[in-house]
Design a protein that fits this description.
- It is a single chain.
- This protein is mainly beta.
- It has 2 domains: 56 residues; 32 residues, no CATH class.
- Helix content is 10%, strand content 42%.
- It has a 5-stranded antiparallel beta sheet, with no helix packed on it.
- Strand 3 and strand 4 form a beta hairpin.
- The radius of gyration is 20 Å and the shape is elongated.
- One of its GO terms (biological process) is germ-line stem cell division.
- It catalyses: ATP + H2O = ADP + phosphate + H(+).
């Protein structure tokens, strides 16, 4: 379900899909994914509206995606045998993420 929320950070109304609720002492906030800006944000419950008419049928400007069949790798160094090999990793390291973002720019 897509809703319309006011983002304090962006200072505008945008469409969002909700992820989870977080209760605070002052106000309830909801964690949501802003579908037109591809970013996560906390939104106060007072700033949520139901979309009307054609507005809800507009295509999103941003979409979640992933690289097909691309898995993280890292350099494994064996000091005893004085060798270095590239092998699988559990997650992307910071240098690989920075390099990929530079490629996209």
């Amino acid at each position: 379900q897509v809703y319309v929320v006011f983002s304090e950070e962006l200072k505008c109304w945008c469409r969002a899909v909700f992820q989870s609720a977080q209760g605070h002492a002052v106000r309830d906030q909801l964690r949501c994914f802003l579908v037109d800006y591809a970013k996560y944000s906390l939104v106060e419950s007072d700033n949520i509206r139901v979309p009307v008419g054609v507005f809800s049928k507009l295509p999103y400007r941003a979409k979640k995606c992933s690289l097909y069949c691309t898995k993280p790798v890292t350099l494994h160094i064996d000091f005893c045998e004085n060798t270095a090999k590239i092998g699988p990793a559990r997650r992307w390291d910071a240098a690989a993420v920075r390099y990929f973002r530079d490629l996209l720019k």
